[in-house]
Amino acid sequence: MRAIIQKVTKASVTVGDRCTGSIGQGMCVLLGISTKDTDKEIEWMANKLVKLRIFNHPDTDKPWDADLLQCKFGILIVSQFTLQCVLKGNKPDFHNAMKAEQSELMYNKFVQVLKSKIPNSDTLVQEGEFGAFMQVHIQNDGPVTIPIESPESLSTQKVKPAKPQKQNNKNQGKKKVESSEVAKDETDKVVEQVTDDLDKKL
After folding, report:
1. Residues 45-86: pLDDT tens digits?
2. What are the CA-CA distances from residue 54 to residues 5, 72, 151 (Å)?
3. CA atoms within 13 Å, Cβ hemisphere of 1
4. Residue 127 and residue 13: Cα distance in Å, rounded?
5. Interhelix angle for 100-116 vs 39-51, to 10°?
6. Contact 77, 111 (CB under 8 A)
7. pLDDT category of residue 175 using cuts at 50, 70 and 90
8. Is the CB of residue 64 less than 8 Å from the CB of residue 53?
9. What is the average per-residue pLDDT within 150-154?
10. Are residues 127 and 13 in contact, defined by beta-carbon separation less than 8 angstroms?
11. Which helix (H) or strand (E) holds 192?
């Protein structure tokens, strides 16, 4: 999952003459969903967005010291499959982007997870319109633009196979001693039997 984050003084999305979402100060996020993305990537990205410290602290005005929640700023989410582009020569290829029907479900789930982490989300979390031809109006503040991508390890985590149990050397040695003692007893019995047979013949 990839995102382009822009710190803005204001941002909005229109489809035709209709405004689908707008915010004042805050961040505009262009979101690209890949074929490998799962609920793990959704949770990781949502957490990253609400905790990203790109704003001045509201009390001290210290730069790069506050996140969305501290500042109570808005966030505008815009789905953008072209972020999953791979260039083949000079031609963009989008085979890494998740197919539209499945991607829409993932996008909607992402928005819901994000809203669950932000108070007053009905007002502070705004959207574009999935699958529509949109005009995105961004007034970048700074400018500050930050690309982030979820770690590949989230989708490639494998369960490590259990290590084979080591045999107890003490028990191993004990078993060897016991086996030797049994073999010795068997040998003694054979020798004793042979001796008895010889005595009888004599």
Report:
1. 999 999 999 999 999 999 999 999 999 999 999 999 999 999
2. 10, 13, 21
3. 24
4. 8
5. 40
6. yes
7. low
8. yes
9. 82
10. yes
11. helix 169-201
